[in-house]
Design a protein that fits this description.
- The chain is an alpha/beta fold.
- Helices cover 36% and strands 17% of the residues.
- The strands form two sheets. Strands 3-2-1-4-5-6-7 form a seven-stranded parallel sheet, sandwiched between helices. Strands 10-9-8-11-12-13 form a six-stranded parallel sheet, sandwiched between helices.
- Strand 1 (2-9), helix 1 (15-29) and strand 2 form a beta-alpha-beta unit.
- The longest helix is centred in the C-terminal third of the chain and has 17 residues, at 360-376.
- 45% of the residues are buried.
- The model has no long low-confidence stretch (mean pLDDT 93).
């Protein structure tokens, strides 16, 4: 079977890109004869940041490596005529020609899209190819991307959600007009060494953007820092809020205990050096940061935001959930796990057991059954 994945930027960082590559790698890893292609709208580096199986074909609809803030002529970007800015502001006019010329040439039995804007493009330029759309964000929290999703989802062969809660939310709005499935994201196929949980490091990772609310995490840590001598907060990732977060740590007097080391290409090793994972997001789809932490046996303390963490963490068993946007509660959760060695190790052991559910090969088989059912016109198991 020929399966193509359509992404916006295959060379960029982020959970969606990494998850797609992990899914593609796992699918070819089944050794069932599938031909897999990764199709990227833009190319902002020579090679993908994450390792891609050499048997997977890479296709760039716009092949010139360029600054995402500039058009092909080096000037400011102009709005895309194919994707309205209110749907997805990442697209611009300089990408339109490559999309229109290259996307109809994709030869696949099934094409998988990962944003609502890409779903609309696949349906427009590949009208006879079955499209499986995978939502990587919390659908119920979408703003600009919700309109194209609700409009185009009934035209997809299937829409795959990361959690049952998000499937139910979308079902309430679409009724029986769309086929909705639930398949979580896999763990990256790397070895996660188990943490000893004695490092006195609270860690998180992700883009330094407003939605992640890392300012909440810094304020939470500041509330209990005096009670946690020797403990540090480490936030991996890059993004536009770096300076603001640095200023906040300085304002709270904990700049010498908050690290912002940027991105890393060996996050598994960093998790093995952490003792607590923290998540303070406003909204999540199925946060890879929690999956990776648990694969290293690291207990998680997370906001119970509308979707994602509650499907990963069993509160009090393999981590703690605290009320969303409640900084004092998040601080209390971090303090509780940091000061209680027995609790920390018990939660970590249970987290490691839970992580086995995200085995890439097991989830690849579920995707394979769905693709085969769509191509044959049947129902997936």
């Amino acid at each position: 079977m020929k399966v193509a994945y359509l992404v916006f930027n295959l060379t960029g960082p982020g959970g969606t890109t990494r998850s797609v590559i992990s899914q593609a790698n796992a699918l070819v890893g089944l050794d069932h004869g599938h031909e897999v292609e990764l199709v990227s709208v833009v190319r902002q580096a020579d090679e993908p940041l994450y390792e891609v199986d050499p048997t997977i074909r890479l296709t760039w609809l716009n092949s010139t490596v360029r600054d995402p803030q500039l058009n092909a002529q080096g000037g400011p970007t102009q709005p895309s005529r194919l994707v309205p800015e209110e749907w997805d502001a990442q697209f611009d006019a300089a990408m339109d020609a490559g999309i229109a010329a290259g996307l109809p040439k994709i030869d696949a039995d099934v094409i998988v899209t990962v944003t609502p804007a890409l779903l609309t493009l696949a349906r427009r330029f590949l009208p006879h190819t079955p499209v499986v759309h995978q939502e990587h964000r919390a659908t119920s929290q979408r703003k600009g991307g919700l309109e194209p999703l609700l409009r185009t989802a009934p035209e997809a062969a299937a829409v795959v959600l990361l959690t049952a809660a998000e499937r139910d939310w979308l079902c309430d709005r679409l009724g029986d007009t769309a086929r909705l499935e639930v398949i979580p994201n896999p763990l990256p196929p790397v070895a996660f060494d188990r943490s000893t949980l004695d490092s006195r490091v609270i860690m998180t990772a992700g883009r330094l953007v407003a939605e992640k609310q890392y300012g909440h995490l810094i304020r939470a840590f500041a509330r209990v820092a005096d009670d946690l001598p020797g403990w540090r907060l480490r936030i991996f990732g890059d993004g536009p809020q770096r300076e603001r977060l640095e200023d906040l740590a300085a304002t709270r007097g904990i700049q010498d205990r908050v690290d912002l080391p940027g991105s890393t290409d060996d996050i598994a090793t960093e998790w093995s050096r952490a003792s607590i994972a923290a998540l303070s997001s406003r909204a999540e789809g199925y946060p890879l940061v929690l999956q990776e932490a648990m694969a290293a046996g690291v207990p998680c303390v997370s906001y119970d935001c509308p979707s994602g963490p509650r499907e990963i963490i069993t509160d009090g068993t393999d981590g703690l959930l605290t009320p969303a946007d409640d900084v004092p509660a998040l601080a209390a959760g971090l303090q509780r796990v940091a000061l209680d060695d027995r609790l920390r190790h018990d939660l970590g052991a249970a987290a490691l057991v839970r992580s086995a559910e995200w085995d890439p090969a097991t989830l690849a088989l579920r995707w394979e059954r769905l693709f085969e059912a769509i191509v044959s016109g049947g129902a997936a198991d």
